[in-house]
Amino acid sequence: MRIFFSSKEAEGKIKRPVLALGNFDGVHLAHQKMFALTRDLAKKTKGTPGVYTFEPHPVKVLSPENSPPLITTPGQKIDEIKKCRIKALIIEPFSRNFAKLNPEEFFETILVKRLRTAGLVAGYDFTFGAKRSGTVETLEKLCDRFQIAYRILEATLLGDTLVSSTQIRNMIRSGEMEKAAGLLGRPFEIVGTVIRGLKIGRALHFPTANLLVENEILPLPGVYATRALLGFREIPSVTNIGYRPTFGGRRLTVETHLIRFRKQIYGRKLRVKFIRRIREEMSFPTPQDLARQIQKDVEAAKKIL
Questions:
Q1: Range(s) for CATH 2.40.30.30 in the chain?
Q2: CA 88 to chain centre
Q3: DSSP string, 14-63
Q4: How far apart are CA 122 and CA 151, in angstroms?
Q5: Cα gap 291→286, rounded to integer Å
Q6: What is the pLDDT of residue 284?
Q7: CATH level 3 topology of 2-158
Q8: Is the peptide bond prior to 207 cis by the omega test (within 30 degrees of 0)?
Q9: Could you tell me the sign of the dihedral formed by the alpha carbons of 90, 95, 96, 97, in that order?
């Protein structure tokens, strides 16, 4: 997949681009269906399947106080889009000046003249242009005017649940990791760098990797059965998100105990997939009581994993 960090950089470099338009936070099941539509339309129009998205998320620029925490980091988003067999990714820098383009200006200047788009795919609730004044109906009219093929993806349901980034955020925040995984099409995953901690876990004979997390959203505090990825190696693990109440902690931490793994990995990147919540965070009378509970958590995680 070729990656372009602006439409100007991509100009003239993609043969007949067929572009999925959107923010694609989470790259969930509905986004994946949109990318399948994009590949199908590209095949029919002899074009190149691509994605056109923004960085940062427009809400972070226009209304930062209302900006939701993102499900994926920019790197995770790129990786997941690549898995969907997309050939070109355009990441447009979003700014207040860019946001002033009205729908017709954006469509004609960027999509028609600069990128020479052969096809477009959007979701049923897609909006674009200044003050989000452009709707799907606007997009359809402009595509007809410029003779550009298009597809609109209707709302995607999993059972009775709408597949959306908002729904997934709510599930992550409430610790419903299996439900979140259902809408994502994969387990929710965080990425972070292993840093030095207080070595409390080591003293309890359950050493943990303390993570400096890159993600904006974390699951509800508690203990989780997880799978940790160190490079290409996947390791069963137990992850605690919380404040270390037994030791009077006040700062939120993310600590992962890698089962049957004892190597030093300070400074390494660790990816952690959340499979199921085991229990809520608790305070214990003594460190020994905590150690006994951790042993039970490890056994519970082994059965889940």
A1: 187-304
A2: 19
A3: SSSEEEEES--TT--HHHHHHHHHHHHHHHHHT-EEEEEEEES-HHHHH-
A4: 7
A5: 9
A6: 85
A7: Rossmann fold (3.40.50)
A8: no
A9: negative
72-123: pLDDT as tens digits: 999 999 999 999 999 999 999 999 999 999 999 999 999 999 999 999 999 9
Going by C-alpha positions, the residue among 220, 208, 228, 237 that lies closest to residue 270 is 228
Is 80 exceeded by the pLDDT of residue 222? yes
- Which amino acid, one-letter code, is at 73? T
Tokens of 177: 């990791």
Q: Which amino acid is at 304?
A: I
Can you read off the two tokens belonging to residue 64?
């930062």
Domain 187-304 has what CATH class? mainly beta
Instruction: Please say if the pLDDT value at position 291 is more than 90.
Output: no
All CATH 3.40.50.620 domain ranges of the chain, comma separated, are 2-158
If you write DSSP's letter for every residue of the chain in order, what string do you get?
-EEESSHHHHTTTSSSEEEEES--TT--HHHHHHHHHHHHHHHHHT-EEEEEEEES-HHHHH-GGGPPPPSS-HHHHHHHHHHTT-SEEEEEEP-TTGGG--HHHIIIIIIIIIT--SEEEEETT--BSGGG-B-HHHHHHHHHHTT-EEEEEPPPEETTEE--HHHHHHHHHTT-HHHHHHHHTS-EEEEEEEE----HHHHTT---EEEEE--S--PPSEEEEEEEEETTEEEEEEEEEE--GGGT--S-EEEEEETT-----TT-EEEEEEEEEEE-----SSHHHHHHHHHHHHHHHHHH-
